[in-house]
Automatic annotation (TrEMBL):
Subunit structure: Monomer.
Signal peptide range: none
Single GO MF descriptor: protein kinase activity
Annotated region (Disordered), positions in chain: 413-448
UniProt cross-references to InterPro entries, sorted A to Z: Prot_kinase_dom, Ser/Thr_kinase_AS
One Pfam match: Pkinase
The name this protein goes by in its record: Protein kinase domain-containing protein
Keywords from the UniProt entry: ATP-binding, Nucleotide-binding
Protein kinase domain boundaries: 118-371
Entry keyword Nucleotide-binding: yes
Amino acid sequence: MNFYQQNFRGHLANNDLFWIKPPQNNFVIQLEGFFIVLRQNNLKMKKLKIAEHMIFYSKTKSINCLNCQLEKVKNSLVFQQGLKISKQGKYLEIFGEIDQLYDHLKKYCVQINFLQIYKLCSVNVEKEKKKIYKIRQRVTNDEKIAKVYELDGGDIQQINKEIQILRLLKHKNIVQMEEVFQEDNRLILVFDNLEGGDLAKIILFKQFCEDTIRIIIKQILQGIVYLHDLGIFHRDLKPENILFKNQEQIEQLQIIDFALADFYCNDHKYIFTRCGTPGYVAPEILQDKRYTLNVDIFSVGVILFMLLTQKNPFIKEQFNYEQIITANYDCQIDYSEVKCSTECLDLLKKCLKVDQHKRISARDALSHPFILGTFSTEQIQFRIKTQSQLQKQKSNGSLRKIIHIGSLDSPRFSQKQSIKSLHTESPIDTTSDSPGTPKSARTENRFSNFKFSKQQQWNSFRVSKFKK
């Protein structure tokens, strides 16, 4: 099934159309200028205005570029490079100074020439239907990250939702999707390469002072406030999904992986309802209750707990998958090992409130005294330890399990195998337990709607009720 033909739920109800009437929304014009346009074999000079995925062509016509095919073209009558935007047999070619226009539209359109623009360098993550590669731009030599989905029809709704959300996001503490490609049965999302590593590796081998923790949590909260203001929850916040732009500064942090993100809705109908990573997920999700945007704040609380103690409150070395979910479900948190200031402990407990309606909101957390506290203005720097140093501390198995319990991948293929395959196959409810329910029955109930498999146990899980 072709990605261009999917019913992509974007801003517009008629987003399958190419030519539409100019929408009444108050779009902020981001680009405008005079271009030579080719339409129905006629060349003319036109002033175009561009806002998000819209090209305003005239007072009565505009182009909805959402999921249009985008490609660079040449025309014998025009001595300039151009862009061809097409959908369902309709197209417009635009010639002139197109660099800015191309950089803007490639986020909203879909391209088909991935291997002409990028070359594969290495594979970072290998899963059944998803691979993450480090790639290099052939012209500029810039390194990027490519998230490659294998399309089999089953996950297209989830992938569409992820792309829809990523196209909306523009914040310094949230990863930016730059381009979308389709190559046969693969969909490829391109992101900036964040070289500083993830928070999981840093927690594993480094203890932080409160000033540093404040900087980290503040940035996470800034990103979450932005998401919640848009009505979006992430639902899979964990140290592995917090990345740094470089190894020198913690002031450049970004939230990644929006595969489980969704728009909050009152009817509580989502593609995935019970989802997240064991040890980080809010208890109301595990308890089949209706939940709010504040599920993300609980996950922030777990991250804060780990920054303070280097331990996850729900994971012990001897725990198996079911025991982790049981501890997460029961949510009995021991604060005795938390050594921090009164303000920090207050924020931690407010984030980890079991009652979601008493849990602090993202915006209130951002204005909490601990986050607003003063700290040294001197730039705080850190560097991830060298490989030899990491090897010396490899024996710390308990902490490693705490960090990686929700993200351990299936064994990777070799770099050669993974790249070769890409080249050869393609050009590129709502109530909690009643008080009278015996504990054994409650324990059984909390697993009854979960799908378990060896492959799934150690990955960020998406859990749904069994379907007959």
